[in-house]
Amino acid sequence: MTQQPASPTFRILRPGVRWDDLVLPAEQVAALEALAGQVRHRTTVHEHWGFAAGMSRGLGITALFSGGPGTGKAMAAEVIARDLQVDLYRIDLAAVVSKYLGETEKNLRQLFAAAECSGAVLFFDEADALFGRRSEVTDSHDRYANLEVTCLLQQMEAYRGLAILATNRKQALDPAFVRRLRFVIDFLRPGQRDRRSIWQKVFPAQAPVDELNWERLARFDLAGGDIQRIALNAAFLAAQAGSKITLPLVLTALRAEYRKLGRKVPES
């Protein structure tokens, strides 16, 4: 993998997660596999089979991952990058977007130029930072915000790798913008069956885990990211106590997570 200098607008990740680590409905997994397959076979289809000649907007493969926090969008991007054996550039769009005219487009061009030689997967985390500015055109600032979104899409379509946008606000996107994306994949909160699988996968094999009641834990309405934080905090509680990771410690961490989220703990 190509070494690139660090940037305040993105972090370079060497993904360590695999397809087996994903806990998603079969439909979403199939869409992600199709996305990775298009990147892998793009040379065959575009160049050897001649499809590139009829594509006027660029040969880039673009995707939108839509869903609430902790539903697996970032992990899915990591899995695809590992599968393709490339780095993942996790981009903070809030750091790219500027209030000064012309600066956002300049930052975007520099970002794509830096990534072009590596073929990395570009993951624009919290893309709402840009989409939230797109609005009805009532003045010059609104028109300019819309131009920034258009600039981003043009850069994505011209990029020779895979570019992924992640958003919690799919409904705020212009339908015309969404139509130009190659893939749109929705990430939903996991049901009880999937939550059980996430709980069983979240603890590393070498972690000293006591017997946990998976069915009881799966009844708590949590996203995958919430479960990961709870498992990690429970592990620290166990390390501090010099014990195994027990169910009472997991429930203690779970209560703390509920309070942090501003939700009432279902003590029953």
Any key phrases for this structure?
268 residues; alpha/beta; Rossmann fold; Helicase, Ruva Protein, domain 3; 2 domains; six-stranded mixed sheet; 12 helices
Short précis:
With 268 residues, this protein is an alpha/beta fold.
Write a structural description.
With 268 residues, the protein is an alpha/beta fold. It has two domains: 10-187, Rossmann fold; 192-260, Helicase, Ruva Protein, domain 3, CATH 1.10.8.60. It contains twelve helices and six strands. It has helices spanning 26-40, 42-48, 73-84, 93-96, 103-116, 128-131, 140-158, 175-179, 192-202, 214-218, 224-241, 247-260, and strands spanning 10-13, 61-67, 88-92, 121-125, 162-167, 183-187. The chain has a six-stranded mixed beta sheet. The radius of gyration is 21 Å and the shape is elongated. 32% of the residues are buried.
Largest sheet: 6 strands, mixed
First-residue to last-residue Cα separation: 50 Å
CATH architect. name of the largest domain: 3-Layer(aba) Sandwich
Low-confidence stretches: 1-6, 139-144
Please tally the β strands and state the result: 6
Protein topology:
Layout: E1 10-13, H1 26-40, H2 42-48, E2 61-67, H3 73-84, E3 88-92, H4 93-96, H5 103-116, E4 121-125, H6 128-131, H7 140-158, E5 162-167, H8 175-179, E6 183-187, H9 192-202, H10 214-218, H11 224-241, H12 247-260
Parallel strand pairs: 2-5, 2-6, 3-4, 4-5
Antiparallel strand pairs: 1-3
Helix pairs in contact: 1-3, 5-7, 9-11, 11-12
